[in-house]
């Protein structure tokens, strides 16, 4: 029975690989922008952002080198702007600015001379402080409470790590939909309710430093803007959104002494007003979390991306477009 399952799995994998190769030859102009957040070993249960082990990440990069043309996001968007869609092109991006990008992803990128773009939220870097979503997850995973009632959010059982992880995911998703001031108030109240002290060292341990960013920038890594405080831009006033967008751009340019050309919408949320703000702020492009390949008709300020899935075979389906064919 196990042997039959293995044979069937191998047959399907072979079919997918053959189909992917054929599709790439036929649709030579397909372009992919890959999204990652964190790379490395899972050392903390409270980490919510997608994390891919460095060995799997390296395996993916070797596959991309063999089957695609890896180019920088800035080069890609310039080509698209000029009406030139490169054949089988892939651009690598990371969101947020976690330290494991430097510790685990950067050595692999450097080893294979692969360009990449990291979108930075400058506030956590400056303050050496966790993102608010990480703070929520940390206090819920480390509280001794067996249940918690969070105003305007809900009641959650916290009897096990599994309960706590489910609660963290739910609370973070609900907070994302709230106005910024209300969200911040609830987070402060949540920290008080749990009685958990967030160690100051966690920010320094988990968030990139400017020195690390400078070193990567000298070695083929570009940096884009991702706001200052990672708010959902559609949940805040337009003037505040403009400040978040421009201040992050200006700060990165000041530190690196180079133009910041690309922007990533926090959580992928934007509307026509936010899109116009980004376009008018001097960026050449912006990326979304909308899943899909990139083509000549894509608005440069609404570029699709594909998640760098942990499952290597699902990633292959996405890369060749088969996932879209099947859906």
Notable characteristics:
disordered N terminus; two-stranded parallel sheet; alpha/beta; TIM Barrel; eight-stranded parallel β-sheet; disordered C terminus; 327 residues; 2 domains; globular; 50% helix
Question: What topology emerges from the helices and strands here?
Answer:
Blueprint: H1 2-26, E1 31-36, E2 38-39, E3 51-52, H2 54-67, E4 69-70, H3 73-81, E5 89-96, H4 100-111, E6 116-120, H5 122-127, H6 132-142, E7 147-150, E8 154-157, H7 161-176, H8 180-194, H9 201-206, H10 210-217, E9 221-225, H11 238-256, E10 262-264, H12 272-280, E11 285-291, E12 303-307, H13 312-320, H14 322-326
Parallel strand pairs: 1-5, 1-12, 2-3, 4-5, 5-6, 6-9, 10-11, 11-12
Antiparallel strand pairs: 7-8
Helix pairs in contact: 1-13, 2-4, 6-7, 6-8, 11-12
Look up the CATH topology of the largest domain: TIM Barrel
CATH architecture of the largest domain: Alpha-Beta Barrel
Unreliably modeled segments: 1-7, 323-327
What's the tally of helices?
Answer: 14
Compute the gyration radius: what is it? 21 Å
Taken in chain order, the helices and strands follow as HEEEHEHEHEHHEEHHHHEHEHEEHH
- Give the CATH level 1 class of the largest domain: Alpha Beta
Instruction: Please give the largest β-sheet.
Output: 8 strands, parallel
Q: What's the overall geometry?
A: globular
Helix content: 40-55%
How far is it from the N-terminal to the C-terminal residue, by CA?
A: 30 Å
Percentage of residues in strands:
15-25%
Find the structural class using helix and strand composition.
alpha/beta
How many distinct domains?
A: 2
CATH H level of the largest domain: which superfamily?
Glycoside hydrolase/deacetylase
Number of strands: 12
On the 0 to 100 scale, the average pLDDT is 88
